[in-house]
């Protein structure tokens, strides 16, 4: 499977056959600008991404914990997700996301 990641500058990176379990881990392994400070337990908000419209409805729904964390992000949009809460699977082949400003190191 492939995952397309646009960084905060709009540069596209295609992650080919990521071995990571979650999208956040795959983005990290790709060396992209993501802090993911809490390591994946939905408690920091620094793995924030915007999911391409076509993909947003195909993901598992946002949990209450994730929603509460996203509420704290100034740059939340309707298609915001925490990438640590998105588990990668073959069905997500072609998933396209953009790293939110609040995900980066600055
Ligand atoms: S890595 Fe901290 S909320 Fe996702």
Summarize the topology.
Layout: E1 2-6, E2 12-16, H1 23-29, E3 48-51, H2 53-56, H3 64-71, E4 80-82, E5 95-99
Parallel strand pairs: 1-5
Antiparallel strand pairs: 1-2, 3-4, 3-5
Bound molecules: FE2/S2 (inorganic) cluster (FES).
The site of FE2/S2 (inorganic) cluster has 14 residues, from loops.
Number of strands: 5
Q: CATH top level?
A: Alpha Beta
Small molecules in complex: FE2/S2 (inorganic) cluster
How far apart lie the N and C ends?
30 Å
Kindly give the count of domains: 1
Overview of the molecule:
The chain is of the alpha+beta class. It has one domain: Roll (Ubiquitin-like (UB roll)), CATH 3.10.20.30. Helices cover 18% and strands 21% of the residues. It has three helices and five strands; from the N terminus they run ββαβααββ. It has helices at 23-29, 53-56, 64-71, and strands at residues 2-6, 12-16, 48-51, 80-82, 95-99. It has a five-stranded mixed sheet with strand order 2-1-5-3-4. A hairpin with a 5-residue loop joins strand 1 and strand 2. The radius of gyration is 12 Å and the shape is globular. 30% of the residues are buried. The model has no long low-confidence stretch (mean pLDDT 96). Bound molecules: FE2/S2 (inorganic) cluster (FES). Residues 24, 36-38, 40, 42-47, 69, 82, 84 line the site of FE2/S2 (inorganic) cluster.
